[in-house]
Amino acid sequence: MSKRRQPPRTPQTKAEALARVARLERQVRTLKRQLAISTHRAEDAVLESDERQRGLTGALEQQAATAEILRVMSSSPTDLRPVFDAMARSAGRLCEAHDARVHLVEGDVLRMAAALGPAPVGGAVGEFSFPLSRGSVNGRAIIERRVVHLADLQSEAEEFPAAIGLPRGQRTSLAVPLLREGTAIGTIFVFRTEVRPFSDAQIALLQTFADQAVIAIENVRLFKELEARNADLTEALEQQTATAEILRAISGSTTDVQPVFEAIAENAVRLSGALFGSVQRFDGELIHEAALHNYSPAALEFSRRNFPIRPSRQAFSENGVAALARLRERAVSLVLLDLMMPEMDGFELVEELRRQEVWRGLPIVVITARDLSPEDRARLSGSVQRVLAKGGHGSEALLSEVRELLARSTARRGDLGRR
């Protein structure tokens, strides 16, 4: 089969060739412009994607920090310190700050309640405070009840001269007030050691933290009020129960008052949280122990040996330890001492009194039923003024001895005072 013959090509002129080259160059330039536009668009898309990713990451971090603070608030209903510590940590991290602090108003000062960075000169958290004035960033935020954001504190030193307790090098500063019903009760404060203002998102985050701080403070106040009310109600209910028990004892013992006294002693000990207690009855001449509750064997023995007694201004202690405690609380002029006491007996008490300068001259009269050995008398010799056998002296004779010793003691103190 024969091939078709192509028509002969018409030779191009030089002008036509040059025109074709020009068209090709224009097409190349157009393609280059389109490629540049596409490249810029791709770069913008990548930047926008990165910005969105950073914004999404920042929003997630802020949400996580807010949720963490709420979790701490729910787990610490009566203690604000963990809540403020969590706020300071999150504020410092998310605001990229050198330091973050929480301050609370106390009268005319601001006291530091939490801090991320090192403690300032002048005290740690809970101790450091500074005057509430317009001359400090925090004071200005409190007094004017608004956010105070300074790009560079050092350039505004004349306006804010009271930057007390803050480290050197503080530059960009931000104080957000804690507002409760329009009243500023504290601040959240962050700063940087470089001039780099905080973003609107970071300021908004601190305002959210400030709102949470106010909620936490109010929650603690309400929780403590509720606890106090519950305690009052519980106490009132216990008192009503005790009164009902005593009334029940009265109605069930019309001819015997002893169950009533015992019910009174038992309920008095329980309601007061005491270790033991008693009901005493005065018959016009003597004081009798009418009922005892939760007395130890030693205390029961003490009561058996000392009651009934006549009313007097004397102070009784059941053992030497209790006697020392009472002597530290009040001044006495004379001690009537039984040698046989629990915990610390009379011999040990005498030795302790004579060791102490303040009690060395205190008159001591021993009244004992014990048969004293020569060793016993040697231990007491020179340390007590009298040793009397229990039951061997009448009340008048004992009173006479006491009056004489008190008179001598008073005269001796007067001589010492005149020297």
Structure description:
There is one protein chain. By secondary structure, the protein is of the alpha+beta class. The protein folds into 3 domains: 151 residues, 2-Layer Sandwich (Beta-Lactamase); 59 residues, no CATH class; 106 residues, Response regulator (Rossmann fold). Helix content is 51%, strand content 15%. The protein is built from 10 helices and 11 strands. A 6-stranded antiparallel sheet has the order 3-2-1-6-5-4, with helices on both faces. A 3-stranded parallel sheet has the order 9-10-11, with no helix packed on it. Strand 9, helix 8 and strand 10 form a beta-alpha-beta unit. Helix 1 runs parallel beside helix 4, helix 2 runs antiparallel to helix 4 and helix 4 packs antiparallel against helix 5. The radius of gyration is 45 Å and the shape is elongated. The protein starts with 13 loop residues before the first helix and ends with a helix. The model has no long low-confidence stretch (mean pLDDT 79).
Strand content range: 15-25%
Q: Mean of the pLDDT scores?
A: 79
Derived structural class: alpha+beta
CATH-scheme architecture of the largest domain? 2-Layer Sandwich
Say which CATH homologous superfamily of the largest domain is assigned.
GAF domain
Q: Main sheet?
A: 6 strands, antiparallel
Q: Could you estimate the helical fraction of the residues in percent?
A: 40-55%
The CATH first-level class of the largest domain comes to Alpha Beta
In spatial order, strands of the major sheet run: 3-2-1-6-5-4
Short account of what is shown:
The chain is of the alpha+beta class. The protein has helices spanning 14-75, 81-94, 137-144, 200-252, 258-272, 297-306, 320-329, 346-355, 374-380, 395-418, and strands at 99-106, 109-115, 129-131, 148-150, 173-180, 183-191, 277-282, 287-293, 335-337, 364-368, 386-389. It folds into three domains: 74-224, Beta-Lactamase (2-Layer Sandwich), CATH 3.30.450.40; 253-311, no CATH class; 314-419, Response regulator (Rossmann fold).
